[in-house]
Amino acid sequence: MGGLTEDGTDDDLLLSIAEGSQRAFRLLMQRHARPMLALAQRVTGSAEDADEIVQESFLKVWRLAKKWEVGGAASFSTWFYRVVLNACLDRKRRLPMAPLEDAGEPVDPSPDGSDCALTRQRRSVLLAALNQLPDRQKQAVSLCYFGEVSGPEAAKILDMSLSALEALLVRGRRGLKKSLMKHGISSVGDIL
Amino acid sequence: MSGDEFIEGLRRAIPAPEISDARIDALIEDTLLRAQGTSQSRPSFWPKLLPVMQYALPLVVAVVMGITVDRDYKSELPVAQFSSVLLSSSLMPSGS
Question: Does the predicted model carry a pTM greater than 0.90?
């Protein structure tokens, strides 16, 4: 394990992790923790939930490292995005956010940037609207708009063609707009 | 509102969180600690057996059929008779 460096590929690290190398595990986490935490926090809306989800996902890597197929169909990064995203959506499903109707009265569209409570309420309306989308649309929207990954990469993560992903995104945006309009949010600018 | 404006609005509404180095370090240390108490699962031997297993059923069928044929027909159908049946059922080209 002495030759293990930060330049090693994810597959190299996974081979070492499969042999029980904590150093390789640390390097892998240092490489992937930040984007995964950002995605999980944006999707769940909670830093605590994001920490827990990413930690559980890394432990899954530790447990299953021996089964990892080097040079398999998916890269580690693609597979790991999928694991984290599914964990986020599972958690939201198990602990559903309050339905949109519970988010309160329709938002007064008058500009009032200083009202933090109102901003939080509007964001929770947006997260609730996202949560009400069908699963595949939710995954596509979360990954492409909050995951900071490119379209082709997102298509790989979701195991679909680019055109299928684009169609999902169109339907997802339409669904979000419809939910938001019900709450008097005719423009996403109103949420800010 | 165009699709691009909507997407930009969404990203601004739920902005990318600031993830501090301290938070990442804490997460890594916690995870390493938990990993120490977690055993790694061994690779399953079934995938290695799979190529062999695909012959298992035909082999079993062949053995069972062999026993059945052996018990029921061996005394009645000698090998010579079988080969003559085979020859007589073959289409022989007739020269012209």
Answer: no
